[in-house]
Amino acid sequence: MNQPSDDHQPPIPIPWDTLVVASSDGIMLLDPDDRVLMANPAAAQIFGDGLVGSPLASIFPPAMLSPDGVTHIRLGFADFTIRRSPLRDQGSLLMIQAVPQADAEQQRDLHEQKLYDLLMIISSSLDIPTILERVAQHAMELIGADASSIPLYDAERDTISTERLINLPDDPTIRAMHTRSVGLVWDLVDTQRPLMINNYQGEARAIPALVNAGVSALIAAPIAGVDRTLFGVLALYRLGPDRGFTRHDLEQLVVIGRQTGIAIQNARLYEEALREAERRHLLYLASIEIGAALDPENLYHAIHRAAKRLMICDSFTIALYEQERQEIAYVYIADHQGRWPSRQIPIGRGLLGHIIRHGVSLRLLNSDPEIEEIFGAERLHDDADLTRSMLATVLHTGEQIVGAITVQAHGPRAYTSNDLDVLETLASTAAIAVQNARLFARIQEMATTDALTQVPNRRHFFDVATYEIERTDRYKRPLSLIMFDIDSFKAVNDTYGHLAGDEVLREVAQRCCDDLRDIDTVARFGGEEFVALLPETSYEQAILVAQRLRTRICARPVESDAGPITVTISIGADSYDDVFAGSLGDLIDRADQALYVAKNSGRNKVVGFRSLIFGKTASFQASADLKNKAKLL
Fold it and tell me: What does the DSSP assignment read for 334-386?
């Protein structure tokens, strides 16, 4: 009997039911549309019941399957090899084999060692840029991603900016500070839950620049401290079609993100400790410099320098409270344009007026006209710098308010609460220094000022005159002295009383100060006698000044409680020049001799010493004859 040839034998049906059930490996039979036609118990044990009829994509993303048909994955705590084989009937067979335990453990150990090494690398640095650079690179390599980025979160501004990019285009839209309308990453910021997107290009909130770069999938984990303070996001990307991430990848990224957050928190604490130590050192140095400055101007400059070292200081102001007048004296106003003139305003106006009235400190992060109006802030000068951020605090010693200071910056959100603490500490030192400077100035005033007339006393006059004599010798410039006293002053006291006499002394001193220049020095020499030192004034000019002064003082009576009192003065004058020089004592003696002649020749007149020597019509040019004649006297 003839047997049919092999070419005509019908295909033998494959007993899939028997093969699938009998296999100890996981087996799934797929139709051409990748739906499960059949699954054995081993496959159900791995992936769960109810596999038949399910699309393969609902079990795990097809992107996980390698194009060459062999894929190594980890499911739970076990590793598997998945082999996909096409069938003649256009379906396919999926065989899932567990990796031998020894091989799996070896792979796991190697992977865990890499993870451990990465965590050690992260923890070994206290420099935040270094931490971010290492994390972005090593996390990408560990998980097998194609690109990575680390967007950092600014809680105060509520914005995200990308600091680290690897294998992604340096596009401004990726690096820019994203508001809440841009990017899926905001979901993570708000919830601090990790993200896994295996179809990124289909997401409505996908960033176009990432889509254009070919990003097909991403995983992202929060970078947060132990107290859940969010610092940023660690994101990994897959490029190209049909390439996704697994849940295991995301779990590893969460661990890396958590450790990165702890490392950043430690680095920030370390940086803050360094800044605090530096600030304490600067405050210590400032306290020494400020404490040593007793002159008000030197003190104001020292406080300003300290503030600039400690924080952003584009504009700086010191205001002192004058309680008796209920005014604020803005004694120091400076910005990048330089020093502005001082001014005084009522206590009820201005930012520092608000601070002084309420005794509070203030921090404004983004000032605008409406906010400034609330606190009564106003620009002290039309051309002064515009500022958006400011700190202000009170200068006080115990319960006594001395004034207030403010530092300001051009940009918004320039200051932290820590900056305000530092300014308050500086203000405490500054307040004591201001009080000391005021006390020192008062003591100096008492030591150099005549208490009754408020003009320099005899001691201060000699200090100033000695300096002017030395200056005249050095630069060969003229210097003159007039000496005068009030005529018949004893009669004023006897007739009107000593209180009225005091009024006369005060008024004569005031009229003298009003008549003379700022560079001239008027002093009470003793009793009713006064002197006036006139720098840059020749003998002839001094005689004219003396005549003018005599005329103005006697032009109108002095008003007193005892009634109007007519006052005249007698004046003697001379100069320190190339005609007569000698010593300061000689100059005073010559003016005194001329005063004696004025008083004993009828009073209410001016006598120049040289008129006694050369006659009233003599010329006082510096001729050799005059010099020789002067030397004989």
Answer: EETTEEEPPEEEETTSSHHHHHHHHT--EEESS--HHHHHHHT---SSTTSPP
For the chain, what is the radius of gyration of the CA atoms? Answer: 47
Q: Which two three-digit tokens encode residue 16?
A: 């899939």
Provide the pLDDT for residue 392. 93
Can you list the positions of beta strands (E) in 76-138?
A: 78-86, 92-98
Based on the fold, state whether residues 616 and 584 are members of the same structural domain.
yes
- Domain shared by 297 and 183, yes or no: no
163 is catalytic: no
Q: DSSP assignment of 551-613, as one string?
A: HHHSSSPBP-TT--B---EEEEEEEESSSS-S-HHHHHHHHHHHHHHHHHTTSS-EEEHHHHH
Asked if 601 and 607 touch (Cβ cutoff 8 Å), the reply is yes
Domain coverage including residue 387: 293-444
Residues 632 and 611: their CA atoms lie apart, in Å, by: 16
pLDDT tens-digit profile of 44-101?
Answer: 887 778 888 888 877 766 656 666 667 777 665 567 788 888 887 678 888 888 776 5
The whole model's pTM is what?
0.54
Residues 370 and 434 in one domain: yes
Residue 493, phi then psi, degrees to nearest 5: -65, -40
Distance CA 281, CA 278 (A): 5
pLDDT recorded at residue 629: 40
Those residues whose C-beta lies under 8 Å from the C-beta of residue 153, and which sit 6 or more positions away, are 159, 160, 189, 230, 231, 232, 233
Element (H, E) at 417: helix 417-448
The CATH number assigned to the domain holding 214 equals 3.30.450.40
Looking at residues 480-493, what average pLDDT do you find?
93
- What tens digit of pLDDT does each residue of 402-439 get? 999 999 998 888 898 889 999 999 999 999 999 888 88
596-602-603-608 Cα dihedral, nearest 10 degrees: -50
DSSP letters of 526-537?
ETTEEEEEEET-
Q: Which of 289, 503, 507, 528 is catalytic?
A: 528
Q: How many domains does the chain have?
A: 4
Q: What is the pLDDT of residue 623?
A: 37
Which residue would you say has higher pLDDT here, 367 or 208? 208
The amino acid at 359: G
Residue 285 has pLDDT above 80, yes or no: yes
With a cut of 60, say whether residue 631 has pLDDT above it. no
331 with 412, same domain: the answer is yes
